[in-house]
Amino acid sequence: MSDTVTVGLDGTGHSLAAAGWAAREAGLRGAALRLVHAWAWRPGDTGYVGDRDSEERMVRAMLSDAEARVTADHPGLEVDAELLVGDPVSTLVAEAAGAGILVLGSRGYGTLAGYLVGSVSLHVLRRTARPVVMVRETGKDSPAPGASRGVVVGVQDAEEESGRVLDFAFAMAAERGVPLRAVYAWELPPVLMWSPGSLWVAQQQGGLEPVHREILAAALRPWREKYPRVEVVEHVRAGSASEVLLPYAGEAELLVVGRRTPEPGVRRLGPVTHAMLHHAPCAVAVVPHL
Q1: 3 state SS of 113
Q2: Class of the 5-135 domain?
C-alpha cells in the first residue's frame, strides 16, 4: 500500500488547513503529498460561476495556488497536484484506496460551484475502508514550536477489531514523539443485565471501575509491546463516551476514533465518531475497524 498522503481540496480555508496538516504529516512519514480536486461540471447547481472552461480554469488555479503554498512551506517535500473529473465522493473514495491516508477539510461550503465539503466528506467517511483525517481551520492542528499536546485515542471496546484503531494511534504518537492518551468510557449497566454472580465478582475487585481499567489495559498491552517508546497515559471515566472523550480532545493535536467497516446498505459513522467530527476542536482521524 502506498504511503502517499492525499488531500482532497475544494478551495475553502478548511481544505487549505487540511493541506497544511497533510504536508506536515507527509514530512514526518518521509512520504509524498498528493493534492487533488474532484470536479464534476454541474451548471444547474447553486453557485454556478460561468461556462465549463471558466470553472475548469478556476479549479486549476485553486490547485496551483495550494501546491505553491505547501511547496513554499515545505521545500523538500515531493508534491503533485491533479484535477480529477468525476463525482467527488466516488473519486475521493478511490483516491483513499490508493493512499496511506486521506486528509479532508472537516466542514464548510466550497467556493467552487455546487461543492458542499461537509456533505462530501461525510459520504467519503461512510464509504471508505481507509483512515481519513478531518481538519478544521482553527489552528489547533498546528502546535506551536516545542508544544507537545499529544495524541488521544478513544477506546470503545477491547475486541480484536479495535486493533487497527489502536495501531494507527500508537503509530501517530510514535512518529511525533508525543504521549498517547487512551480514553475509555464506561456506563453503569442496568441492574437486570448483571447476574448476582457478576455483581459479586465486581464487588470483590473493588467495584466496577477496576474491571474497566483491566479491560483497557488488556486492549493496550499488545500495542505497548509493539511501540515500547510511546508514553501511554490511561484514562478510565464513567459516563457517555462522547462526554468523556471531548475534554481530552480539547488538549490534543490529534484525536483518533474508530468506526465499523462499511457494509452493503449500511452508511453509519456511529454516534461517538459523529459527535467528535462535529465538536472536537483538533484534527480527527477516523479509522475503520478490521
Answers
A1: coil
A2: alpha beta
